[in-house]
Write the structure tokens for this entry.
Amino acid sequence: MAEVARRHDLGSQWLNDSAAGFLPQTLKEEECTVLVDHPRLRVLGAPLRQIFVMKLLASRALDVADLAAIWNECGFDSPEQAAVLYQAAYPHLEPDQYLVDEIRIIAGRAPGSDRAGSEA
């Protein structure tokens, strides 16, 4: 891993399992992009929709900024559609009555949004 990082000018933590605890049940391997395919290492990249729900579950300060940054690329038709995927991804969680509102605020902060940059 360190050799690959040096060779490609990547950070030392370019490959880790820190997101494993946020793995959505809706993530399917066939939807992923193969980023590295080596006989002893295969690295898959999750679709942005799945990354969105993972970051939404994590909800750290940095994740909220990332969520706004990727919102337009996720292809959700609405905050409600994103909430449906979130609930399907994490069916063990209690329903959150404020989830759609939280996603709406994130979408409002997305680049190009009428409310981008607002503190809504």
